[in-house]
Amino acid sequence: MQPPTSMHLVASSSMDTIAGRASVIDGDTIEIHGERIRFNGIDAPESAQLCTDAGGRTYRCGARSAEALAEWLASSSPTACKFVERDQYGRFVGDCTRADGASVQRWLVRNGHAMDWPRYSNGMFSREQSTAKADKIGIWQGPFQPPWEWRATQRERSDSSSTISLVPSAASSAAASEQSGACSIKGNITRKGERIYHVPGQKYYTQTRISPGKGERWFCSEQEARAAGWRRSQQ
Predict the structure, then answer these.
(1) Where does the TNase-like domain start and stop, copy by copy (predicted)?
(2) Can you tell me whether residue 167 is helix, strand or coil?
(3) pLDDT at 193 (0 to 100)
(4) Are 114 and 106 in contact (CB under 8 A)?
């Protein structure tokens, strides 16, 4: 990741603010001017995470959160984020607002697209969460696993199988991703043969259709997509 220019981010201090058109990475992460920004104090479902709706059907709640966020941010741009800290991955962690002053974190939690993360929030968004839970909206429609617990479960599964699992071929990995339906990044092949992937929230994500017979596939992470020879869509 290239560092942002000085016109968008002032010298590193607690008063840093970055503003601009936001590209949604997932339900709690955006990118502005090349800077990856993690929302402070909340946690949204992961892209591959499944939740249960009011009818008992599973759905990709992480992808849905990202799509809802992208639509909401686009209706009042630009987005501004005030620096809080750098996390262990070097990401800018911040408190963000839309152009109309609405808090991004509060909106996500209030509408059931993310959770208050007590470990980092000190209950800052607990009121919004209680309201969303009472209204049974978003992830609160049915049973689900808190994102931080879901990630821990995935790590445990990975650790327990690492000593006996073989690395799958690219073909089998693609098939597994397609069959599972749990991965949300769309690997599309254009008429010119270009391999381009789309993440939830991008302009053409919803209308892009994946045809495995043409060599198109789903990816569970951008790293996986790039390693397979795809590049990120610019829109």
Answers:
(1) 24-142
(2) coil
(3) 82
(4) no
CATH at 63:
2.40.50.90
Tokens matching residue 71: 């639509």
For residue 144, the tally of other CB atoms under 10 A from its CB is 21
pLDDT digits (tens, 9 = 90+) for 9-44: 433 444 499 999 999 999 999 999 999 999 999 999
Contact 197, 219 (CB under 8 A): yes
d(CA 62, CA 66): 6
Give the length of the chain. 235
One domain for residues 28 and 76: yes
- When pLDDT is averaged across residues 133-149 and rounded to a whole number, the result is 96
- Enclosing domain of residue 213: 166-232
The pTM of the full predicted model, rounded to 2 decimals, is 0.65
The answer, yes or no, to whether residue 101 has pLDDT greater than 70, is yes
229: left (phi over 0), alpha (psi -120 to 50) or beta: left
